[in-house]
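Dear colleague,

Following up on Tuesday's group meeting, I ran the structure prediction for the two-component complex that the binding team flagged. I've pasted the input sequences exactly as they went in, so you can double-check that nothing got truncated or mislabelled along the way. The structure tokens for the whole assembly follow below. Feel free to forward this to whoever is handling the docking comparison.

Inputs:
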Amino acid sequence: MKTIFPMEERFGSFLSDGNLANAFRFTEVEPALARGFVVFDFRGVTNMTSSFCNALVATLAARDFNEFSAKVRFSNCDALIQTFIRGAVAIGRREAAEVA
Amino acid sequence: MLYFKLPAKVFEANIPKLICDLAQLDRDGSEAVTLDFLRVEYWIPAGVVLMCSMVKKWTESGREVSFKNHLMCAACSYLQRMDFFDRVGMKLPENFRRHAPGTSFVEIQQVFPAPMRYHDPMVRRLAECLAGTQDRMDDVLRFSEYALGEVVGNCQQHAEKPGFASAQYVSSRDWARIGIADYGIGILESFKKHGSPHYSDGMDHSQALDRAMKPWVSSKTHLVQGPYRSSPNKGIGLTMIRNMLAATGGQLFLASGNAWVRFENDHEAESGTLPGGAVLRGTVVSLGFARSQVDNFRLILSEAQQALNLTPEPGDDMFFV
């Protein structure tokens, strides 16, 4: 099963609120990940903060990096959004390694 | 009755003096205070929102605050256009025509401390003023949104009291400024209150400010037992902003408690404490940068990440479809 989250539809074109990202990760993304694959669709998203990206992506990656690598993907990201996500993945990878 | 003559000009260089003077007035508790605007000519946004924050704090606690010469000072129209008087509960007649929103400055915006509140429209409005465009892909707009999103988020998450934000662009100097002030618990108390491992007995405001500027430090990073079993904070927001501003020749000023710190370009930080035992209840942040220096936000972001050793691995391309 694959769940697609349209990020602009959910949060607008600028993703900024880390608290909102944290709640979203816990209440919707983690249950979806337990059911199968997750795709975050960034079509229409033009910007974000590190707070939002880290609360969502880094925390998700740190929780179980292998599962994250196998089941999470990001679509329609421009170069800036990719840079944010790559940074958050690096944090998640580091935190996962510290726990291991 | 206390009486204070407000300074003519407030810039980044002398804002610690204004903080000190207002904190001294704050220390005098419930005694009525008169603020004299006679000489007031030009204040950067951080100075205006700081005064707004202080006056709001005083009036909310029932302290009597009166203004003198505010209608005849050189900055009266500017303060009115910024909604300063409205924000502190004083209605004045408007004998001027307001500019179209988002031109050279933005009216003072209120930042609410609610646990989850969407501030994006407000951040967008401030960012559009700083960038001078509504083009969502513009590098200055995205840089401004990022910086505002992080500092507004900090205020929202940590202050526990309302804050105020404003922005301004001075075209003759190509200089964009953001100011945010709150009358909340401040950085030291936030570390202490949340039982942060970064807090230690005897820690003072300067040490707390210094600690807050270090990467991977937040007063809430350790709170993994919250409702979502993870803190939303990684503690890199301020460090990223400082690195980005350093890379673009910008400035960052922070004050909390009796301590302040200023970063300019990539020079060594300058810091100090307020004299005379003055203590600011809350936090003030001022950011400044030149539009012309923000030529490629993605590159600036990438360099700031690299400074924190956040280096992607080649295989990370697989995440993007």
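Chain A touches chain B at residues 12-14, 16-23, 25-27, 39, 46-52, 54-55, 58-59, 63, 69, 72-75, 77, 79-80, 82-87, 89-91, 93 (CB under 8 Å).

Cheers,
M.
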